[in-house]
TrEMBL record:
The name this protein goes by in its record: B12-binding domain-containing radical SAM protein
Taxonomic superkingdom: Bacteria
Domain named B12-binding: residues: 13-139
Keywords: Iron, Iron-sulfur, Metal-binding, Methyltransferase, S-adenosyl-L-methionine, Transferase
Any one cellular-component term (Gene Ontology): cytosol
Cofactor dependence: [4Fe-4S] cluster
Annotated TM spans: none
Length: 484
């Protein structure tokens, strides 16, 4: 059996003129995981349209068309996913559609596929393969059994590592224990557990298989199960890894866990602050942030030698046009290395979407604009245009050279200030350089620089505050082969 796995892209990710670096960070790990369930004599290939042109004429390219095409659809790439699916179905290929958007709007997706998959695929995909081989695949598969036990080895051999800045992405859990009303999680994991992990031994074995030094945990909430996380971090000590991940404010404030992560190599953390307004937090069920001291959390992360990417959402009902400047000024004063801003977006099947629909506040259903950069609903205290303009202005303001230097000055050492400036400016002040290396397919050559910045520009900074010099050769082992 010949199976072709496809991750469709947005138009801007395939433009010959400009390729944002965020689309060249991580390979499609979910598709590589599904490929692990195939038999040894099956043929498989993975095609990520973000980093390479997708060839739809398989007969002229490889001599034969695939038996099965598997397409992963996100909301903003749904239209492109349907176009690809329709093309292959017209040619007689069996088409499978899955992913967040398919789970949210299954009837819409079903019109473009032979089989659709709702929810995680660890139980439904193996069942489909068995059904397909026996000649009676079902039109719809719905996940109910939630476990990562017995997960096969991810087919990383199918990933073209040199096209990504962070090929060593990894996921050791599924879902999140929280229930924010704007998050897709509850809709995607309906009908079963919404948060579960691998065994620690399996997670450590997967880490051991990864070459090089740098890792990025793509888990929605790596720290969500305290016992699992603590044991994992203990097992990672001595591996010599540098890694990045995401956590919530409440887990950062728990004593001991952050320190274990830092000792195991954590160097950068994505934190969903979302809003500085407690009413907004309550309105959107962001209970893990309520009554938490953001400043104390930031100080704990900083004392552990870890950088912060702060995430913020604009357009909640308590937000007016003053929210943008206030949020930027707060982030700069707190010394956040980077900030990621989003326009509140009501994804289909979420609690937020249902509320907006009841209130008649949805402006349209052009899914390609549900990308957290366009306003797709009527805000309560500003116009849609004011929300979009404030969003873009926040990015421009936070990443001015003046604010970058101001934020860096909050660090107590020159090394810390230098790392801050190098990391923050590297993402937002050199987009032309990123575009050039992506077009030349040389983005992997930037990985040693990323590792050097994460490691502290040639230094290790223990919790005691002591600074120890290390030879650069011990920090940046050469990786022969070749996204963030």
């Amino acid at each position: 059996m010949k199976v072709k796995f496809i991750l469709p892209a947005l138009t801007e990710a395939t433009s010959p003129l400009f390729r944002p670096v965020k689309y060249s960070l991580f390979p499609p790990l979910g598709l590589a995981t599904l490929a692990g369930y195939l038999k040894d004599d099956d043929q498989a290939s993975i095609h990520d349209e973000h980093v390479e042109r997708l060839c739809l004429d398989d007969a002229s390219n490889s001599g034969e068309r695939p038996d099965v095409v598997v397409i992963q659809a996100y909301i903003t790439s749904a239209q492109r996913a349907y176009e690809i699916a329709d093309h292959y179905r017209e040619g007689g290929t069996y088409v499978c559609l899955g992913g967040l958007h398919v789970t949210s709007l299954p009837d819409e997706a079903a019109a473009h596929a032979d089989s659709i998959f709702l929810g995680p695929g660890e139980d439904t995909w193996p069942q489909f393969l068995e059904d397909y081989r026996q000649g009676h695949p079902r039109p719809r598969y719905t996940s109910t059994v939630r476990t990562l036990d017995g997960l096969p080895k991810i087919r990383r051999d199918l990933i073209r590592r040199h096209l990504y800045l962070v090929p060593n992405s990894i996921v050791v859990s599924r879902g999140c224990p929280h229930h924010c009303d704007f998050c897709y999680k509850d809709a995607f994991f309906t009908g079963g557990r919404g948060y579960y992990t691998q065994t620690v031994d399996d997670a450590l074995a997967e880490i051991e298989r990864l070459p090089g030094r740098h890792l990025y945990f793509l888990d929605d909430h790596l720290f969500g199960n305290r016992r699992f996380a603590a044991t994992l971090f203990d097992g990672m000590q001595g591996m010599g890894r540098l890694w990045q991940a995401a956590a919530t404010v409440n887990t950062i404030l728990q004593p001991g866990l952050l320190e274990k992560a830092a000792a195991a190599g954590l160097r950068s953390l994505f934190i969903g602050f979302e809003t500085l307004d407690t009413t907004n937090l309550a309105d959107h069920a962001k209970t893990q942030n309520l009554d938490r001291d953001y400043t104390t959390a930031i100080r704990r992360v900083r004392d552990a030698g870890v950088m912060i990417n702060g995430s913020f959402v604009f357009g909640m009902d308590q937000d007016d046009t003053s929210v943008f400047e206030r949020t930027v000024e707060w982030g700069v004063s707190q010394g956040l290395e980077t900030s990621t801003y989003h326009i509140l977006t009501p994804y289909p099947s979420t609690g937020l979407y249902q509320r907006m629909q009841r209130e008649g506040r949805l402006l349209h259903s052009r899914w390609n604009e549900y990308d957290t950069r366009h306003t797709v609903f009527q805000p309560a205290r500003m116009t849609p245009d004011e929300l979009e303009q404030g969003y873009w202005q926040s990015y421009r303001q936070f990443y001015t050279w003046r604010n970058l230097f101001t934020a860096a000055a909050t660090k107590p050492t020159w090394t810390g200030r230098g790392r801050h400036l190098t990391y923050a400016a590297g993402w937002k002040k050199f987009e032309g350089l990123w575009n050039a290396v992506i077009r030349l397919k040389q983005i992997s050559q930037m990985r040693p620089m990323l590792e050097q910045v994460l490691s502290g520009l040639g230094r290790i900074q223990p919790n005691s505050g002591e600074t120890i010099e290390q030879p650069l050769s011990t920090q940046l082992p050469i990786v022969a082969e070749q996204e963030t």
